[in-house]
């Protein structure tokens, strides 16, 4: 059984390993008939890799095109699928975080690992904020982030910064009321970097990856990192935010700074 994601006009399909090319083409052509909004079907050839979270694809059917035009929560996004990470499976996460931020009084928000700015834009369109700083390592992602800001008619209040969070964050003098961390699935947590620009009362939405059996270990590591940084934190809640393997999940951890 093939697994797939639809990004507007493009379907990205992960086929079973033993599936023959002829069967893939037949599946793709049937898919195009069933989903008329989809114009291109590509095969995902490998796992998402590295801090840029890029994928390799191979054209299977339809138009030969890698530029996706996607709509989510009333917002428009444009991106090149093989050079810009984007998961439509995080749609509910993005709008839920935006709704929680909308309950705050004009917060200053930092989005780390911002990609083509889906969290940034959905927060900007659904919550009243004083400023949103959006940091992304990938140059191509930042190019599309700026284009997406224009597509969604956001004329002020958002700063797109291209660079490594470990280098950019120490240069930021102000503190944030909210920090959103849709981080890559890497060993490095980057939590200490977020703590550098936190203050008493700051809310952090941290995304961590862990097998079910090691979830508490992941949470203890966050508490240890905070202690090393001389920060006290309170874990407000921990929710599953998607599966990445059998019995292994992405978790959204909502954290409050106590000092």
> How many strands in all?
13
- Read across the widest sheet, the strand sequence of neighbours is 9-8-7-10-11-13-12
Strand content: 25-35%
| CATH fold group of the largest domain | Rossmann fold
Uncertain runs: none
In N-to-C order, the SSE pattern is EEHEEEEHEHEHEHEHEHEE
- Characterize the largest beta sheet: strand count, sense, and whether it forms a barrel: 7 strands, mixed
Annotated CATH architecture of the largest domain: 3-Layer(aba) Sandwich
CATH superfamily of the largest domain: Vaccinia Virus protein VP39
Shape: globular
Tell me the span between the first and last alpha carbons: 50 Å
Number of helices: 7
Q: Which CATH top level class of the largest domain fits?
A: Alpha Beta
Class by alpha and beta content: alpha/beta
What is the topology?
Blueprint: E1 3-7, E2 10-14, H1 21-34, E3 40-44, E4 57-62, E5 67-72, E6 75-80, H2 91-101, E7 108-111, H3 118-126, E8 131-136, H4 139-151, E9 158-162, H5 165-168, E10 178-181, H6 191-196, E11 203-211, H7 215-228, E12 233-245, E13 248-257
Parallel strand pairs: 2-3, 7-8, 7-10, 8-9, 10-11
Antiparallel strand pairs: 1-2, 3-4, 5-6, 11-13, 12-13
Helix pairs in contact: 2-3
């Amino acid at each position: 059984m093939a697994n797939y994601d639809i990004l507007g006009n493009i379907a990205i399909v992960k086929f079973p390993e033993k599936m023959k090319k002829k069967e893939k083409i037949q599946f793709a052509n049937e898919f195009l008939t069933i989903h008329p909004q989809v114009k291109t079907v590509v095969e995902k050839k490998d796992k998402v890799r590295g801090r840029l979270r890029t994928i390799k694809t191979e054209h299977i059917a339809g138009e030969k095109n890698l530029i996706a035009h996607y709509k989510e929560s009333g917002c428009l996004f444009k991106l090149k699928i093989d050079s810009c990470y984007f998961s439509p499976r995080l749609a509910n996460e993005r709008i839920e975080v935006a709704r929680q931020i909308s309950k705050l009084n004009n917060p200053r928000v930092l989005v780390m690992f911002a990609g083509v700015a889906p969290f940034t834009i959905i927060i900007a369109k659904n919550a009243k904020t004083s400023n949103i700083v959006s940091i992304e390592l990938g140059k191509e992602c930042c190019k599309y982030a700026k284009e997406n800001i224009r597509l969604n008619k956001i004329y002020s209040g958002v700063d797109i910064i291209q660079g490594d969070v470990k280098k950019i964050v120490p240069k930021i003098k102000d503190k944030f009321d909210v920090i959103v961390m849709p981080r890559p699935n890497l060993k490095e947590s980057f939590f200490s970097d977020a703590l550098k620009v936190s203050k008493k009362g700051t809310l952090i939405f941290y995304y961590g990856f862990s097998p079910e059996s090691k979830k508490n270990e992941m949470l203890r590591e966050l508490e240890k990192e905070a202690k090393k940084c001389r920060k006290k934190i309170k874990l407000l809640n921990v929710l599953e935010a998607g599966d990445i393997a059998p019995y292994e999940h992405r978790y959204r951890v909502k954290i409050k700074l106590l000092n």
